[in-house]
Design goal:
five-stranded mixed beta sheet, 7 helices
Length: 238
């Protein structure tokens, strides 16, 4: 996949999720409720439905040939990467009445100032809880509650340290069943698997059987032997 400027790369919709084999997998960010990570501030208010408590996040990148991503997130090149075509998946989830959304990470030099957003949310929720309709109507006419606040709070990262990850995040809020907030059905988004340069033979064999069963395309990722650069080369699995 050839990349252009961020947000303008060709072949939009292809995203990659780096992983390690389950036998070595450590508990990662996407294994825990979203509210336990990247809290915007200790005093941040909670939405009426407490959706921050029943949320999960999945992290993707734009480039499967990123050496940094293979090294850091795929067990030092010993893991694998999964390719998803997310162009239509979010719409499919919405048709299933699932609150799933996909956003690019926002890289900045400074943490965002959410004072106004939090103040508006706290004020609005207070008068809503006490049932004062007159004040609610008045507030609706003078303040605006940022509907994206509870998404954006988990999208900011330090530009200098993380911009090269080209990360996108899928956020899922399950407001109906707090005991099963991470259940996301397969809607045909998973397209291919990429085997890392140093993946163990037994792990690759297991994953190959799964890939064949699911009808996934398979690729090998290795150092490009035809170049003196440190580039990674993707080839069809043999």
């Amino acid at each position: 996949m050839r990349l252009c400027q961020r947000g303008a790369f060709t072949d939009f919709g292809r995203f990659f999720f780096f992983a390690v084999h389950l036998s070595r997998k450590r508990k990662a960010v996407h294994d825990r409720p979203l509210h336990e990570w990247n809290k915007p501030s200790p005093t941040a208010g909670k939405p009426e439905s407490s959706n921050a408590l029943y949320s999960k996040i999945a992290c993707f990148t734009e480039n499967v040939q990123s050496k940094y991503m293979w090294d850091r997130y795929a067990d030092g090149y010993k893991g694998f990467a999964l390719e998803y075509d997310l162009r239509n998946c979010v719409f499919k989830y919405n048709k299933l009445e699932m609150n799933v959304n996909l956003f690019p990470v926002i890289y900045t030099d400074l943490r965002p100032d959410v004072t106004l957003d939090e103040g508006n949310i706290h004020t609005y929720e207070y008068f809503k809880q006490i049932g004062d309709k007159n004040w609610l109507n008045y507030l609706n006419s003078i303040i605006s509650v940022n509907q994206l606040y509870w998404y954006k709070a988990y999208l900011y990262k330090d530009q200098k340290e993380y911009e090269h990850e080209h990360e996108w995040r899928m956020l899922y809020y399950n407001l109906e069943n707090e005991e099963d907030y991470a259940s996301i059905p397969d809607t045909g988004c998973l397209k291919a698997i990429y085997y890392g340069p140093d993946i163990a033979k037994k792990d690759k064999e297991k994953l190959h059987r799964i890939a064949v069963k699911k009808g996934l395309k398979e690729y090998d990722v290795n150092l490009d032997a035809e170049s003196r650069k440190y580039d990674l080369k993707v080839t069809m699995f043999q």
